[in-house]
Structures are given as structure tokens and as C-alpha cells.
Amino acid sequence: MTGRVLVVDDIEANLRLLAARLAADYFEVTTAANGTEALRAMETSAFDVVLLDVLMPDIDGFEVCRRIKASPRTSQVPVVLITALQHQSDRVRGLEAGADDFISKPVDDIELVVRVRNLIRMKRTMDELRMRARTGQDLSLQATESELAGPLSGACVFIIDNDPGSMEFIKRGLQDGYEVKCETRPGRALYRCVEEDPDLVIVNGAMEGMDPLRLCSQMRSNDHMRMIPILLVASRNDRRQILKAMEIGVNDFVETPLDPSEFTLRCRNQIRYKRTSDGLLRAMQETIEMAATDALTGLYNRRYFEHHASAHIAKAIAEGKHLSLLLIDVDHFKQINDRYGHDIGDAVLVEFARRLRRNVRGLDLVCRYGGEEFVIVTPETNHDKAQYVAERLRSEIAGAPFIVPATDEALEITASIGVSTLQLSDETTGSLLKRADLGLYSAKNEGRNQVRVRLIDPQDHLE
Fold first, then answer.
1. Which of 313, 347, 312, 317 is nearest to 333 (CA)?
2. Is the dihedral of CA 376, 382, 385, 386 positive or negative?
3. pLDDT digits (tens, 9 = 90+) for 55-94
4. Nearest alpha carbon to residue 107 among 182, 21, 171
């Protein structure tokens, strides 16, 4: 996986070395000689990752990172601090500034490429979720991204370790407010992670009698666990394990002995990533549902009907099965609106939809077609059964009065229904709707509160 990388360092030799190494792996590299140039480049170009030296003369790397993360335009771009500073306090300061990762000088070529690829993979996953959820946000139908993430308190953290002593040590390093769960058996851990969907999984890289990286690989290959962050607790001296872990998709690592401040911040960053991705997924699903659902009644809307009715018809034709369509209209609905107002008219439609939904099968497609018209597609139903269903619906509508909210006045509501059924191998949604509409027209003309089935008549010239 390649991408666009901004490399920032005030020493030209370092810039050339980093740029050459990344270009050799087909990354597109832009360089900046100081913090001011870097911030200017961030405002004018789009990057997938920023590699940022900490010690620079004009603006240090901590401040550049802070400004990148503070800008709405660039806050989602991963920042890697490249530093010769060895104190844990400097790493904590970087994390507090918003840095996503660190690389120590001298830079290991393999580590550099692995970390950059891992961060690009994560960013593109999140970018895809943001893009899909953006429609609802643009329409002010959803919360902002920070609101979607919500508070981090109460996050579920799962520790996988078969050494009770080290497990307890890791557990003590977590801040208060997390729900911490522990598991010693790898197979059981996978099952529980799928069932409980934790916000973070911490894996001890020094477990005896098993391969921790194989466990991490199994987690990443499971569809239900791909978005769960994995934090590896690794030995400072085992660089091979750390690099391999990053290659297979482990999100981050901490080295032993654990620094409490760094451990807390890294856990918090990964939990925020999970909470944000979960929020974006929910927002995306809500956007899909809003696009397919009638806001008033909660039924599917006309757009959804037109797409899915065709699929139902094609399936019925291919399998040689029956299918019928019911077109339903609320009788005298205009008079209800004129007399009681649109609020009462809306309440009638909501109750009307509720009665329809309550009296059909789960496999039937019930939609609000528009205004006071509703449509139902009934798979595996011939015209006799469809007529029976329509009569039951008509009776359910007329059998009990609709109570007007606030006044408790009872309204007698009836419905007229036209029915058509699949008869030819080249039928379409349009042909079924047209016959059902003719049936509905007959029901209206003949006094309303009736059901009329319309079968193919050569004189209709439907096709």
C-alpha cells in the first residue's frame, strides 16, 4: 500500500535519506525543511502521513503536530514523530500533542516502511467511513465526528495473557473508568472478542506456550474483529516481533517495562479510534436507513420500493413462483386534512401504516408509495390468497376507529385496495402497478372500502 507522505526535517541529509527510502517503496514524497513550510504544505496539499522531526529551529515538532491536529482540514492525517530524544516524558509530550506514532533515530528502514503503511491503511479505512457518513452530516441529520465518538469512560478493554502476574500488572496500568476483562485461553479469547466487541484488545507478546502473533493474525482475519484495535505489549529488545506485528495489522505497541503515562495515552488513542469508527459505521447505517425510509410512517419509501420490487419480481419469475401486489388508498383523506388539519392527517397515516405492518408477513414488502397511497408486494402469493390478504387488511382498517390525539375523537377510516398478480414471464413493476391501479380505480368508483382484483385483459393494452 502506497500513499502521499510529507517528510519534515531541518537537516537536508536526513530529508534526502528518508525521501529516498520511501520512494524506493513507491511512496509519493514531499519534503519540508522546517515547521512553517510543513504547515503551509498541509494547507495546500493532501497527505496520508506526516513524518515530523521533533528538534527544529523555527517551530518544534510538538507544536507543528499540535497545529496539524487542531485544524479541521488536517486533523485526521496521522503524524509520526522522528526523534533522538530518549526520555519517556518526551514521548508522552508527543502523544499529548496528538502524535500517532514515534520512530527513534537512527531510523530503521524496515520499521519506517511498516509503520507508514500501517498508518495509511488505518487512515484510508477511516476516510472511507467518513465519506459514507458525510451525507447525513451535511444534511445536519447526524452528530459531528467528536460527538459520534462519545466519552471514553466505560470503554471495554480485553487483556489476553496466560500469566496471571503480568496480566495483573497490565491491568493496573489501565486508567480508572474502563471495564477490564481478562482471558488466558487464546481460543476462548477469540470467541469472547466476537461476542463482546471490546474497544481495545491488549495482547502480551511474551506469553508462554503459544504464538501471540498467530492470535493477532487470527483476529485480523475475522470479519467481526477487523475494526477492533490491538495493542501489543512487547519486549524492548524484540524488534522482529514488533515489526512483524505491525505487518499483520496490530495497531500499536508498548515496550516493557511499561511507562504508565505512555501506556495510558496509547490505550486512550486506540479506544478513541474504535469509538469513532463505530460512530461512523452507525452514522453510515442511519444514512442508508434514512434514504430508504419514510420519515413519517417508518415504512420503506417509494425509492426503496421501486428498487426492491423489481428484485422480488425477477426472483419470482426465475423460480416460477407466484407474486402479487396490493395498492392501497385511504378513503376521503383530503376531507380529513381539510377538517382536522395536517397534524391529524399525519396521525391517521401513522396508525394506518401500523395496522398494515401488523397484518402482513415478515417477507412482505410494505411501503408508503406517496401521500395516502401504500403498496405491498406479497411473494409466493397467488391472486386468490392476495385477495384474502387485501380483505383482511381492509377489515382491519375499517373494523376499529382511529382515535384523534388530544381530543380522543373517533374517526371512521376505510381503505380501497387494488390487487394485481404476476401472470407473464416478462412482467415488470410498472405492469403490476398499472393493473393494481386499475383495480383501485374500480374500488373507488364502486363506493370505496372495497377490494378489486385486476387480472390481465387483452383489452387493457398494458404492455
1. 347
2. positive
3. 998 899 999 999 999 998 999 899 999 987 666 677 788 8
4. 21
Q: Cα torsion for 383, 389, 391, 392, to the nearest 10°?
A: 170
How many degrees, rounded to 5, is the angle at CA 197 between CA 192 and CA 203? Answer: 65
Say whether 427 is catalytic: no
Residue written as cell 467481526?
224
Say if 296 falls within a structural domain: no
Task: Classify strands 410-411 and 402-403 as parallel, antiparallel or unpaired.
Answer: antiparallel
As given in the structure block, the three cell numbers for residue 160 are 489476553
Residues 7, 62 within the same domain: yes
Considering the domain architecture, whether residues 133 and 148 belong to the same structural domain is answered as: no
What is the C-alpha separation between 138 and 326, in angstroms, rounded?
Answer: 36
Share of the chain above pLDDT 90, in %: 58
Cα dihedral 129/226/159/92 (nearest 10): -50
Number of domains in the chain: 3
- What pLDDT was estimated at residue 397? 96
Q: Are residues 220 and 271 in the same domain?
A: yes
| Mean confidence (pLDDT) of the chain | 88
The predicted pLDDT at position 1 comes to 65
Instruction: Specify whether 332 is located in the same domain as 434.
Output: yes
Overall residue count recorded for the chain in this entry: 463
User: Rounded to the nearest 5 degrees, what angle is found at the Cα of 455, between the Cα atoms of 360 and 329?
Assistant: 45
Between CA 411 and CA 402 the distance in angstroms is 5
What are the b/e assignments for 288-325, b being 16+ CB within 10 Å? eeeebbbeebebbbeebbeebbeebbeebeeeeebbbb
Band of residue 150 on the pLDDT scale cut at 50, 70, 90: low
Number of alpha carbons in the 13 Å side-chain half-sphere of residue 11: 9
Out of 262, 351, 372, 427, the active site residue is: 372
Contact 322, 381 (CB under 8 A): yes
What DSSP string runs through 333-375? HHHHHHHH-HHHHHHHHHHHHHHHHHTS-TTSEEEEEETTEEE
* CATH for 252: 3.40.50.2300
Residues 6 or more apart whose Cβ sits within 8 Å of residue 316: 322, 323, 379, 380, 422
Task: Kindly state the cell numbers that stand for 246.
Answer: 505491525
Measured CA to CA, the distance from residue 421 to residue 50 in angstroms comes to 62
Distance, CA of 307 to CA of 310 (rounded, Å): 6
Lowest mean pLDDT among 154-163, 282-291, 410-419: 282-291
pLDDT for residue 140: 43
- φ/ψ of 284, rounded to 5, equals -60, -45
Rg, Å, the chain Cα set: 31
Strand partners, 32: 8
